[in-house]
Amino acid sequence: MALLAERVRLLENSSIRRMFDEAARRPDAANLTLGQPDFDALPATRSAALRHLRSAEPASHGAGLLSLRRAVSVKLRERNGIPAKPDTVLITPGVTAGIQLLCLALFQPGDEVLVPDPYFAVYPHALRLAGATSVPVDTYPDFCPRASALRRHLTERTKALILNSPNNPTGAVYPERELKRIARFAGANGLLVVSDEIYEPFVFEGKHASIGAYHEDTLTLNGFSKSAGVPGWRIGYAAGPPAVISGMRRLQELTCMRIPAFAQKAMVTSLAESCAQHAERYRMRRNHLWRALSGMYKLMRPRGAFYAFPEAPGGNGDEFALHALDEGVVVVPGSAFSARNTHFRISFSGIDLAAGIEALRRLSAKNVEEPLGRIADNPRHDGEAVRNADDKAAEMTPDRGFAANHLYTKKRREVPWRTSGRGR
Questions:
Q1: pLDDT per residue over 341-355, tens digit each?
Q2: Domain limits at 349?
Q3: Which residue ranges in the chain fall short of pLDDT 50?
């Protein structure tokens, strides 16, 4: 008799975790896999945590402390244009846990969810655990999803779509005008939008835009691991339609119960503290990486987060990651994030970046099968050369080219999260 449940046996081992393990076995290798900031907790945040840790803190409310939910709702209204209120906010044990809570609360067997590809590796697994189907929507080569491409994957079973900007693993930042197009598409088809915005503070050009400002049926996920330098504290938040938040809260109260109160109180302080100096450091690292590698690898210039997603020489990301190990650098193959296996992910958040870049340069110079050049960098990063090229669909892969026009289904389907008392 099998010991593990079928739902667990269906989950694939994470390529990211395998590369983490390889990095641990090779301490001399440059580690470019880490998906977390390299700076300590922000000073005022750390002081607030210590102060509250010394006091006797009662158990927090199941949805999170009112003071933090109130501060989060103010932040969402003032910085993101999202009409949130404290009772439409849930404090979660990190964004990843929020993703799983959302999937279990909302999706069931037969549901389909559109996921722009490349994607954060957790999304398809979380959907699979809920019995739902992840439908990848190709965004190569500029990694920006388009309403026209999403439209072509729409079926009667489509219930939602997941966005992640700034994006892990590509570093893409979705332009505001494309988010507005996607919002119109989602609204016309009664879709919930899940917007993962954990890398919001790390935008190197332009401004971050939140689709929740344009589409009322949006579940916004965010947190403090990246912005406050506290990845081990596991504090995130979700904000959106009351019915969805209520369902997620019920599941949370049956699993992790509550988030430590002292850490929640420290996050109130964190919302008033800036990580801009660290974002500037990452921008400078991005510039260094771009200058060093863009002439040797096919690479779209990252506009946010702290990742780059080059094409692997020879076109096989898994094989390239193994060769990189032999050269003394650990990267994550792109197959961890995509239906394709053509790229690999670099994190420039850690201290090993300089050594890693040198190893990648050596690897490129050794025996490249074909000349490598940079993908033309569009300074506006709105994919204009492609976005306005509905008539250039032939230039894209045949089954993933852009639709000839932007057509939206007129019929508005009934959806369970839309209520008259929205409270947002």
A1: 999 999 999 889 999
A2: 6-40+276-366
A3: 369-424
Pairing status of strand 307-308 against strand 236-239:
unpaired
Cα dihedral angle (332, 338, 340, 343), rounded to 10 degrees? Answer: -30
Tokens 């589409």 -> residue: 215
**One domain for residues 262 and 306:** no
Distances (CA, A) of 199 to 83, 168, 192, 307, 379: 20, 8, 21, 11, 21
Domain assignment present for 120 = yes
Q: How far apart are CA 267 and CA 380, in angstroms?
A: 34
Amino acid at 125: H
Q: Which amino acid makes up residue 204?
A: F
What gap in Å lies between CA 208 and CA 165, rounded to an integer? 8
Same domain for 175 and 158: yes
pLDDT digits (tens, 9 = 90+) for 82-130: 999 999 999 999 999 999 999 999 999 999 999 999 999 999 999 999 9
Q: Identify whether the C-beta of residue 275 lies closer than 8 Å to the C-beta of residue 201.
A: yes
Which of 348, 366, 384 is the C-terminal boundary of a domain?
366
pTM, two decimal places: 0.85
Q: Do 208 and 342 sit in the same domain of this protein?
A: no
**SS3 track for the chain:** CCCCCHHHHCCCCCHHHHHHHHHHHCCCCEECCCCCCCCCCCHHHHHHHHHHHCCCCCCCCCCCCHHHHHHHHHHHHHHHCCCCCHHHEEEECCHHHHHHHHHHHHCCCCCEEEEEECCCCHHHHHHHHCCCEEEEEECCCCCCCCHHHHHHCCCCCEEEEEEECCCCCCCCCCCHHHHHHHHHHHHHCCCEEEEECCCCCCECCCCCCCHHHCCCCEEEEEECCCCCCCCCCCCEEEECCHHHHHHHHHHHHCCCCCCCHHHHHHHHHHCCCCCHHHHHHHHHHHHHHHHHHCCCCCCCCCCECCEECCECHHHCHHHHHHHHHHHCEECEEHHHCCCCCCEEEEECCCCCHHHHHHHHHHHHHHCCCCCCCCCCCCCCCCCHHHHCCHHHHHHCCCCCCCCCCCCCCCCCCCCCCCCCCCCC
The alpha carbon torsion through 83, 87, 93, 96 (nearest 10 deg) reads: -40
The vertex-383 CA angle with 116 and 148, nearest 5°, equals 50
